[in-house]
User: What shape does this take?
Amino acid sequence: EEALTPEARERVPEARRKTEAKLAELEILHKDALRKSHDFAAREKAEDDYRRERRRLEEDRDRQIEKLRRG
Assistant: This one.
């Protein structure tokens, strides 16, 4: 990360922090939904949705960081 512009040096950690906050919120909501659900199929769907959304957020973060690195 030495070759990053000063702006990118600020924005890369910011992108990581924002994603971590979104992931934490997603996990809290997911655990709450699981706690309330007693239907196996609904729980399984909630797990799949959680993993998909988590992956999407992580991929968005990685794309954003890569874009910042390329300038």
